[in-house]
Amino acid sequence: MLTEPGVHRGLPSRSLTLVVTMDGTVDLPDGRFATLCGGLHHEAVMITHDGFQHGVQCDLTPLGMRAFFGMPAGELADTTVGLDVLDAPASELRERVRTATTWTDRFAQLDLVLGRLLRPVRQQVEVAWAWQRLAAGAPVGEIAAEVGWSRQHLSARFAAEYGLTPKIMGRVMRFERANRMLRGERRPTLTEVAAACGYTDQAHFNRDWRALCGATPTEWMAAELPFVQGSEPPEVARL
């Protein structure tokens, strides 16, 4: 992908981020990475780039984190590490992706290497249910009542698994829905997005965006919308 050199915001979402570069590195405050896995976070991650980025990015579910690397997503909350730190064959994976000649083959090599890492997954039923209900927009108090836990116990167990509390994760999921609407082919007004995603008003929408993104929706669209539109598939996969 080609764009103007500068700083790009890696936005909070419900997915961990796995990246394998084909040229150069991904330059973050945590370091420079040829391969990486970034945990769930509740603030934008600033990515410095020279205008050229070439590689494969995968959206990794928390369950996928356990299946591939044998640990809960909570262990990577608000941080990024190289894949070698997770005992993954980072060098082999990067070499296979770099030497493949088509995107189909690159994704096949990704499947091959990561497939060797797969292991049985165990996850607490109540915590997994809470994630699904948050994704559906249910309030935290209602979810706690459904699983028979206090809000405090639910928050502690949820944060241990995912790294963020249910309240913060709910904000992130709502933010992600709004972000996807703004990146669609038919871009709605900010008022329409705020109403559709459950913000109480435009001021609430702007406050949440500034807290999670570091900019208002209008500022983000002006600075970064061309960047994120240019980074869509075929270079993105979901695991």
UniProtKB/TrEMBL annotation:
Family annotation (Gene3D superfamilies): Homeodomain-like (1.10.10.60)
Keyword match DNA repair: no
Transmembrane segments: none
Residues of the HTH araC/xylS-type domain: 124-223
InterPro entries attached to this UniProt entry: AraC_XylS_family_regulators (IPR050204), Homeodomain-like_sf (IPR009057), HTH_AraC (IPR018060)
Pfam family, one: HTH_18
UniProt protein name: Helix-turn-helix transcriptional regulator
Source organism of the structure: Lentzea indica
High-level lineage: Bacteria, Bacillati, Actinomycetota, Actinomycetes, Pseudonocardiales
